[in-house]
């Protein structure tokens, strides 16, 4: 497939709406599970185990929405698009261990989530929310 140089605002908005629906669904699940905690103590542990799995997978989802984005437009300056690409590649190819790419000028201290080489990727709801907002902002800045 050819690389994509621009996305329609309607496509970006549709993708953002899907992400917000996933987040709302997760929050509803979390609230329901926590309200049952006094009756079902294992629900809290199950939710804690589920959270990083769910949000790691959400990184793969947002990366896939814009999978064919033109890398010349994306640049390699360590921006949120690069960070999502690095996270996705690390999860798929390196068993959830963060792996920088020599072609991307990634600096943990300037990144959204501050991952360093070898760190285990385990996103929380707060981590993912911060990342997806920065990612969509960068998509709009570069691909509209």
Tell me the radius of gyration: 16 Å
Oligomer: single chain
How many helical stretches? Answer: 5
Number of strands: 0
What can be said about the biggest beta sheet?
Answer: none
Q: What's the N-to-C terminus distance?
A: 20 Å
How would you explain this protein's 3D organization?
The protein has 144 residues and is mainly alpha-helical. The chain is built from five helices and no strands. Helix 1 runs antiparallel to helix 5, helix 2 crosses helix 4 and helix 2 packs parallel to helix 5.
Indicate the topology.
Blueprint: H1 9-35, H2 42-65, H3 71-74, H4 80-93, H5 125-143
Task: Offer a few descriptive terms.
mainly alpha; 5 helices
Short summary:
The protein has 144 residues and is mainly alpha-helical. It contains five helices and no strands.
């Amino acid at each position: 497939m050819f690389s994509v140089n621009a996305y329609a605002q309607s496509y970006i908005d549709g993708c953002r709406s899907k992400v917000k629906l996933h987040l709302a669904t997760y929050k509803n699940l979390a609230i329901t599970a926590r309200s049952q905690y006094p009756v079902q103590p294992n629900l809290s542990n199950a939710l804690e185990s589920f959270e990083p799995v769910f949000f790691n997978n959400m990184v793969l989802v947002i990366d896939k929405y814009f999978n064919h984005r033109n890398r010349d437009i994306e640049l390699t300056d360590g921006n949120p698009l690069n960070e999502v690409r690095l996270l996705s590649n690390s999860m798929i190819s390196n068993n959830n261990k963060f792996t920088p790419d020599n072609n991307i000028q990634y600096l943990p201290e300037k990144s959204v989530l501050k991952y360093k080489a070898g760190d285990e990727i385990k996103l929380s709801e707060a981590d993912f929310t911060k990342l997806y907002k920065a990612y969509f902002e960068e998509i709009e800045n570069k691909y509209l």
